[in-house]
User: What shape does this take?
Amino acid sequence: MQTLEDRPPTPRRFPHPWRRYGRLVATNFLRGASYACGTGVIGFAVWWAQNR
Assistant: This one.
């Protein structure tokens, strides 16, 4: 059983609980945007190659 001294200190950098998810939301948004952009570029390249 752990005592209070054995536990690592809890981070106090985030005063509000929802703020700690900001980076996760931004990362997932950028990942989805880059996936959509890559898919669009590939689709455009295929369309351009077929219509040349």
User: Anything to note?
Assistant: DSSP finds one helix and no strands in the chain. Residues 38 and 44 are 10 Å apart (CA to CA). The two ends are 71 Å apart (CA to CA).
